[in-house]
Amino acid sequence: MTEVETKKPQESLQDRLNQVVELLHKHKLVEDLAHRQEGQHQDIVENLVHRQNLAELQRKLDELHPADIAHILESLPLDDRLTVWQLVKAERDGDILLEVSDAVRETLIADMDDHEILAAAKEMDADELADLAPELPRDVVHELMESLDAQQRERVRSALSYEEDEVGALMDFEMVTIRDDVSLEVVLRYLRRLKELPGHTDKLFVVDYDGILKGVLPIKRLLVNDPDKEVADVMASDPVTFQPDQDGYEAAQAFERYDLISAPVVDKNGKLIGRLTIDEMVDLIREESESEVLNMAGLREEEDIFASVWKSVRNRWAWLATNLVTAFIASRVIGLFEGSIEKLVALAALMPIVAGIGGNSGNQTITMIVRAMALDQVQTSNATRLLRKELGVALVNGLVWGGVIGVMAFYLYGNWELGVVMTAAMTLNLLLSAFAGVMIPMTLQRLGRDPAMGSSVMITAMTDSGGFFIFLGLATLFLM
């Protein structure tokens, strides 16, 4: 009789989070009931229940990948987060700290003593230590550096010498190097002696005796070619390479363009000093995307959703204050035309339409421009042409949709002049939004700032104030 082996379906990340939340809830509920019991053995019963529930939760955590635990920690309020964090095995702390967001990592490190931090950091590679070091206490970093061997210490210092978004800060030092004058059989024997290959190893790096990069040997070429051939006959001599001071986002774009999994990093003399891997590039692209969204909304940094009220206020106040000022300006623009609004009440009902459509159109334009800038598609030479194109789109949209709302205004209020003013105001405000949508990110970039920084706040301010002024000004000129 044969047994049919059934495979357990893969749980979704949300299922795992729900299971942990349920176990936490169960633990709190049972602990609360045990605490309410009075009797001689209350402390013993409470202690047993406490251990039993936490042991069940710990077993669940042991089954999960560090990235899954990181997601769970980010999704829990602070008290529950620290409860789960204390149940994670010490040897997994380092992997999880590298996976969580910066804001959540801060709360986890604050809950660890120096001994725990050192134990977690000692399990990391040099590039991982460099990622974590800026967020650790100085005395811990000093003690950690003293515990490293000379090579590791030099690698960490090298990675820390670069800006966080430069290739040098993102590169990995774990890689396999070979010579070009050996046979593929020798290379295969060498690989078999290694305990394991570094992650994302799709190619071996061919260097000379001075460490100068001569080419790369893709694993697929190593496996399918005659073992008696020499590396020099099989290797690729023109690989995509990067230098440590290059922009990391440009490297990420190259990874996408050339479908890279890993790539060598060389100094100005061509000496191999590290490699970039696809996992770092994916993380960088995700972080850049998240940062762009936050900047467009006027948030200064990534925010822990369960952070204290004060921390969240500090993160959000700056652009809210800016928005308050721009809203006040818009209100004063309306105040200039109070007499016109009193004479024709329809203006009060229609002016939010002009401002709202202008804001939406401006956000569309600014999103397209910021994305194009991120992909290096916008240069000084094509900026004027791009501006003309966006103004043309705004003109067509203004005439079409302004005409639609003008007809509706005539139908509702029986005033054809009001319909014409509505069409003209809509067209002019869309032209303003297009101009601002192109010029705001370009100006920010020229000033050395992130083109997305507060852009949605600024474009809304301009289209609100401008829309009110254009619409009410035209109405005052032609209807009063």
Automatic annotation (TrEMBL):
UniProt-listed PROSITE patterns: CBS (PS51371)
Single GO cellular component term: plasma membrane
Residue stretches spanning the membrane: 391-413, 419-444, 456-479
InterPro entries: CBS_dom, CBS_dom_sf, Mg_transptr_MgtE_intracell_dom, MgtE_N_sf, MgtE_transporter, SLC41_membr_dom, SLC41_membr_dom_sf
Protein topology in the membrane: Multi-pass membrane protein
Xref: SUPFAM superfamilies: CBS-domain pair, MgtE membrane domain-like, MgtE N-terminal domain-like
Keywords: CBS domain, Cell membrane, Magnesium, Membrane, Metal-binding, Transmembrane, Transmembrane helix, Transport
Family matches, as SMART domains: CBS, MgtE_N
Cell compartments where the protein resides: Cell membrane; Membrane
Presence of keyword RNA-binding: no
Recorded GO MF terms: magnesium ion transmembrane transporter activity; metal ion binding
Magnesium as UniProt keyword: yes
Span of domain CBS: 235-291
UniProt xrefs under CDD domains: CBS_pair_Mg_transporter
Subunit comment: Homodimer.
Known role: Acts as a magnesium transporter.
Record NCBIfam families: mgtE
Family: Belongs to the SLC41A transporter family.
Record-given protein name: Magnesium transporter MgtE
